[in-house]
Structure formats: structure tokens, C-alpha cells
Amino acid sequence: MSIRHLSSLSLVLVAVALSSPADALTHAGFLPRQATETRLSWGGVYHRVDGVTLGGWVTIHYLTLDAARYRPAIAFSPSGLGTTSSLEDMIGQEGAFAGINANFFDPSSGLPIGFLLKDGRVLNAPYLSRATLAISFFGQLHFMNPRIALLFRTPHGSIPIDGINRPMYRNALIAYTPEYAGPRGSWSDARVIAIRGDRIAWIGSDRGISSTDRNAYWLVATGSAQTRLADLLPAERAQLDYRISPELYLIRDALQAGPMLLYGGETALTPEGFQADVLQKSAARSALALTRDGTLILMIVTRGNGSVGMSLLELAEYLRTLGAVDAMAFDGGGSSSLVFQDGARLRTIGSTREIPVGLVFLRR
Fold first, then answer.
1. What's the per-residue H, E or C state across 116-131?
2. Is pLDDT at 331 greater than 90 in this prediction?
3. Is 318 helix (H, G, I), strand (E, B) or coil?
4. Total-model pTM
5. Residue 224 in contact with residue 169, Cβ under 8 Å?
6. I need a surface site. Which of 74, 85, 210, 286 has the fewest CB within 10 A?
């Protein structure tokens, strides 16, 4: 799949916007009945739209922003990656004006699912070729379904990595970054390498790992994976990196969720490893879309309190009626939430569930 990118002058954090009645009944359409709008002191505009789909009544919320004044960034729990917190806490930590939930995650461990890149640093492994949002250092946004591989670059060549910032398992090579605060586990026969300043600082056993060393990367090999580290020596260069195809340059942040909803103005909904009921049932939804006029849409559709939610197909088809060219889904259901500054307080729309990763918006 080729890459589409954005360098537009306006952003929209949205749930689904208002269309004309003539558009509303197309395909599995949404028919708006009520709409309200509130202008916020810092420049955003909050909207609520209520209407019906074939499944019943739906409530949608969205927030519009100007991309010339605000930029998106990846945020995670103030306690560290591998833990969860409220989206409000993430916005407060980053000094942001608004945010939306992002990656899927394992609720039992708090570990995010899918590729994660922040400030150019790889923080989480990719999951299949699910829909990915990449943000350049210049603020351009790329929607894609890339192939991504993790590796360590060394003088002896590139060493493939099986995982990053997750518990160890047998016959695997796992990397740990200073941002990680989640479970690691312990293996008596593990081979461990500490890397500081892109050079190997120490080689030893699992017992030598220090969870308090916030400047070191740790490379941990168990079982047969130890052979991958056999040629490495202290003081040699070693750098955590990734390969992405299609190739992109100067990427600052990236997150992976999915599935892709629209691409090039056409419906692009495919399973991407999700179960069929995830695609077809009505649920709370969060999504990101780019319209033909250069408006970015961050979307939340609620479920409960009379709202039945939307299926992903309904969401994709309605976004297309709004002029969206590209769109991808984020984690929905009990994670779907939109938070923004409203006067002296942060206002939360949707879930208050703690999450590991959010997409927040800061003043440029």
C-alpha cells in the first residue's frame, strides 16, 4: 500500500460530524437529528451530534483544532510504559489541550499492542501489518499498513529482535528501554547486554539487570537466542532500530491500532487479524480520518445511555460521506475516550478507563 500524508492547516478531533439528510441514508448511513457546538477559550470547538443508524440511536462527539497551532504527540502513563493511567493524566503530563485513546492493549498486563515510536525511540513491537499512524518531525501524518521489523545494529550486522518491553520467554531476544516500567520476569540462564550511549557497556547474566538505571537499554537473550549475541564485545556500537516498508524518513512518533477504514477515498476495511465480530458489531468507537480538504478527524462514538454505537463499516461509510479520504480505527469499546480543556478543567467524553497509550495535542 502506498503512503498518504498530511501537511494541512487544520485538525479535527471528532466523533462523527453532521451531514445532510440526503447523505444520511446511503449504505449503512447515519441520520443526524440534533447538533450542538461550543467554542473553547483556547481555540478548539466542541461538537455533539445525535442521530440514528439502522441499529438505533447514536451519540457522537468531536473536537476541531487548527493544525497550524497544535501538533499531535504520543503519550503514555506517567508511571512508565507497561503501566496504565487515565487519558487526563497523560494530557496533564504532556501539557496538552486535548487527547484521544490510541493503541489496543492487554488489560491483564497493561502492555500496549502494536508498534509504538516516541521521539524517534522504538518502544513497542509491531503486530502484523495493522493500520499505523506515523508522524514526521515536520508534523506530517502518514496512514499506512506497513511491514515493520525490530533489530539491533552492530558492527557484526543487524540482529533481529523478538520483542521489546514485554516479559521474557524461552528462546527469545527481548529489548528493554528506559521508559519501560512493566513486568520483565527472570531467567537463570539468560545472557544480558547493557547499552548506554549506543555502546555496549556491560555483558553478563540476568542477575545484573538494574531496573533503576534509567539511561540503559537492556538486551536479554534466553535459550537458543543467546547465539545471536555471541560475537558482541564491550565498547562496541549497538543501536536499537527498526525497518519499515514502505520506507519512511524522519518519523518522530508512530502508533499502531486498526483496522484501516478508508484509503484513497475507498473502503479499506479488512480483518487485519481481528475477529469477525469486532468488525461487524455496534460498539463504542475511536477513529482518525483525513478529509479531502485537509481536515483531520479524531473520532469517538459512544455506547450506553441510549447510544448503540456503530459498526466499523457504518463508521467507514459515514466518514466517506464527510469527504474523508483516509481513516483508521483506534481501540474502541471500554477504552474509547476524548478529553479536552474546557475552561479551568479537563472534560472527559466517553470512558474513564485507564489506558497505556494516548494521542495528545500540544501547542506548536
1. EEECCEEEECCCCCCC
2. yes
3. helix
4. 0.88
5. no
6. 210
